[in-house]
Amino acid sequence: MAPDPAAAPDPSEFGTRPDISARSVLVTIFGDSVVPAGGEIWLGDLIDLVLQFGFNERLVRTSMFRLGAEGWFEVDRVGRRSRYRLTPWAMGEFAAAEARIYGHPAPWDGQWTLVLVEAAAGAGAGPGLAPFNRAGAEAARAVLTGRGFAPVAPGVLAAPRAEPEAVAGWLRAAGTAGAVPIARASFHDVAVLAGTGWPASAFDLEPVSARYRAVVDGYGPLAASPPDLGDEAAFALRTMLVHELRRARLADPELPPEALPADWPGDGAVAVASAVYHAVAEAAERWLAKVTGLVVDPGVTAARLAG
Q: How far apart are CA 168 and CA 137, in angstroms?
């Protein structure tokens, strides 16, 4: 006898969790469903998509207005209707997030990227460069830690996979004017260092590990025994799954395998997410098309979280 299918999470309960906001779920829906269908959606359709999470129209309108004020969206108004589309800057941010959430890290070349924020803060301005003051150093730290960097020494932040050119671009885009020393280097015998607790302690992996475990615990039974869901419920399940995975993947510094704890749950969480995502993808896409008219290329969906 086949095992009974596991029950899918209730989207209305998901929407009331204290760690879940309408804003964050809207961002997830944009990244998972709207961006691959062109990046534009009528506000009324977006409201219809999130009703099952318990978010009312006023909350959605307020959340989207604030995201627009922060530079994420542009709005076209046609009569009383509003159509939201990502700004060019936001398209770049979503593209970068897409690669981290649904893709796989490239093979590691053994090099770490180091940013010397204290050295920059203490340096004078070069020709044509504004001085990089203490406020600039703090802004640089905020940008870099949000991109997976961690302090490995006073005033030195490091990450294993960031390209120096990309790092410089992030800092420029954040308005941290001035020259910032960026270097590439290797650490001797990372595997031995990992046995001492570094770099797990420097990169504070426990919160990331907990998020991955939440994916495994919450969705593992569904991967083993996928539920037979209607289209609306399938869309809700996929959104909840991606939301949980997104929070883990974007916080993951993507350390090389030899630097990770032996019980690291990241690969297991991605395997679970892949199984559930593809089990409900067709039904979820039908609901998206029915509510919004948006159609995602099946090839894009198939490539996400591919083995």
A: 13
The total number of residues written for the chain in this structure: 307
- Residue 278, pLDDT above cutoff 60: yes
| pLDDT reported for residue 181 | 87
Say whether pTM exceeds 0.70: yes
In a domain, 124, yes or no: yes
Q: Which domain holds residue 139?
A: 112-185
Judge whether 219 and 280 are in contact, CB under 8 Å: no
How many CB atoms sit inside 10 A of residue 230's CB? 11
The count of domains in the chain is 1
User: Could you tell me the CA-to-CA distances from 189 to 192, 235, 241 in Å, in that order?
Assistant: 6, 45, 37
Does residue 148 fall inside a structural domain?
yes
* Average pLDDT over every residue of 186-212: 87
DSSP the chain: -PPPPPPPPPHHHHTT-TT--HHHHHHHHIIIIIGGGTSEEEHHHHHHHHGGGT--HHHHHHHHHHHHHTTSEEEEEETTEEEEEE-HHHHHHHHHHHHHHHS-PPPP-S-EEEEEHHHHHHSPP-TT-----HHHHHHHHHHHHTTT-EEEETTEEEESS--HHHHHHHHHHTT--S---EEEE--S-HHHHHHTTTTTTTTTHHHHHHHHHHHHHHHHHHHHS-----HHHHHHHHHHHHHHHHHHHHH-----GGGS-TT--HHHHHHHHHHHHHHHHHHHHHHHHHHH-----HHHHHHTT--
Residue 206 lies in a domain: no
